[in-house]
Amino acid sequence: MDNQQGNTHSLNIAVLTISNHRTAENDTSGDYLQQAVELAGHQVVERAICPDNRYAIRAIVSQAIASQHVQVILINGGTGFNEQNATPEAVVPLFDKEITGFGELFRMFSFEQIQQATLQSRAVAGLANKTVIFAFPGSTSACQLAWEQIIDAQLTINTKPCNFVSQLKKVAK
Questions:
Q1: Which of 30, 51, 60, 98 could disulfide-link 126, Cβ–Cβ 3.0 to 4.6 Å?
Q2: Digit-coded pLDDT (tens) for 108-134
Q3: Which residues form the signal peptide (predicted)?
């Protein structure tokens, strides 16, 4: 998380946990993401837990995309391969552009921890209405991997030659 130190461009971020079992009291992955986002100098402007239902996920993500205050959406959970997991099916149709490299990088880094099981990870990312959306597994270790190895650096203007900051909607601070 050190690469955000000195970042002068704070972003407004929504943290969404997809789970049929998590609550505000035991959402350790959402807690980790909120702390990491704030430590990086950004603001968590929305935080929610949503059931693993394609239409409920799509509705809450659509609201965040349409919001004039949300620039980034971090979704943890619902990306596995079992029949119940619906996050990719919910969010991919909302993308104006898919960020295919995110899923590829996530699985590459994840392989070091969980070997071939990473094959069943359906981590995805995209841009919609100048809002960047990252969806990844809900385990706290997967959230740490996604944030620390990929997302954190992409949300700072200090990352060269490219990052997502210039492509995000402008919000009044």
A1: 98
A2: 887 677 566 565 677 999 999 999 999
A3: none
